[in-house]
Design goal:
globular, Nucleotidyltransferase, domain 5, 5-stranded mixed beta sheet, alpha/beta, binds zinc ion, 316 residues, 19% strand
């Protein structure tokens, strides 16, 4: 008999709620506008109504638990702690609020950790004991799995390799420091690299030049690169170069058997992956030669965040 869990992905704008079967299939989904809520208890109460609907509509008799991927979600405390992109300020005891409505285990973590766990339970990392997940989006997140367990660290904040400094005194980062990896290899960073290159190469008259700089996105740069735009290709070569260094450093840190990549910029495919692998090979300490695969996440795009959150219910 199949068992079921609930995965909840809390984003700044939307909250997605999914019913996930133990074989990794998302059976049904609902969503709520996160940014319309200012009272966390009303927000959680509305989510719980959606969960009850999902359970009723799909004739599921019981769920094993609820996994929640939230900005600044703390695995140890079950709280959201001072998230910068949510209306809920300060420390919100999410797990306790859910327990007021539903009597099942509730596990909270951040979205990069959830992505790593999703890969482990439902994706390409099944059966692996040591791997690192990098999520490239508006920022760069990472989740580190060692001996089959997520690394949470002393405070629950381990695995923020997006804020490891890649270039001292480099680009300013939202964390208040300069030169963090995410300012170079996130979607935002790729956009910035493209704008900088266009300024440095005034002769460039390709497709990206025709886009209003305010409207330029990393997806546009990725699409242009796939169609052979020389500047866009250079942007991805540079991004891959930077990312390869970060991945080589991650290997020296935790000795994984694979590194998984996920997120919008990864969809650019080989234009990003080829320079990333080359830079990775160049910068990897020789003792790890041939021991690590760089792979793309095998979770289905549309349900990856929900599957990751649901997988947290299996976290050890
Ligand atoms: Zn930073």
């Amino acid at each position: 008999m199949n068992t079921y869990s609930i995965g909840i992905d809390i984003g700044g704008t939307n909250t997605d709620i999914g019913l996930v079967r133990d074989d990794g299939r998302c059976m049904a989904k609902k969503n709520l506008p996160t940014n319309k809520y200012y009272d966390a208890s009303v927000y959680v109460s509305d989510i719980c109504d959606k969960i009850k609907d999902l359970i009723g509509e799909n004739e599921v008799t019981a769920i094993d638990g609820i996994g929640i991927a939230a900005p600044a979600g703390n695995f140890y405390t079950g709280c959201i702690e001072n998230a910068t992109n949510l209306n809920f300020k300060g420390v919100i005891d999410l797990a306790a609020l859910f327990h007021d409505h539903l009597n099942v285990p509730v596990v909270v973590s951040n979205d990069a950790n959830a992505a790593a766990y999703g890969e482990l339970v439902y994706g390409g990392a099944k059966g692996m004991k040591h791997f690192v997940m990098f999520t490239l989006g508006t920022g760069v997140g990472s989740g580190i799995v060692v001996d089959g367990k997520l690394v949470h660290g002393k405070t629950g904040g381990a695995g923020e390799l997006g804020h490891a400094i890649l270039i001292p005194e480099g680009r300013p980062c939202g964390c208040g420091r300069k030169g963090c990896l995410e300012t170079y290899t996130s979607a935002t960073g790729i956009r910035r690299t493209a704008l900088e290159m266009m300024e440095a190469i005034p002769d460039y008259d390709g497709t990206l030049r025709k886009v209003d700089p305010k409207e330029l996105t990393s997806k546009m740069v990725g699409d242009a690169a796939k169609y052979g735009d020389p500047l866009a290709i250079k942007v991805f070569e540079k991004t891959g170069y930077w990312l390869g260094i970060a991945l080589a450093n991650a290997v020296a840190f935790s000795g994984p058997e694979a590194i998984f990549l996920m997120g919008g910029p990864v969809k650019a495919g080989e234009v990003l992956l080829k320079p990333t692998r080359e830079s990775f090979k160049k910068h990897l300490c020789f003792v790890y030669d041939g021991s690590v695969d760089i792979r793309v996440s095998e979770l289905p795009d549309n349900d990856a965040a929900i599957l990751g959150a649901a997988a947290l219910t299996k976290a050890k």
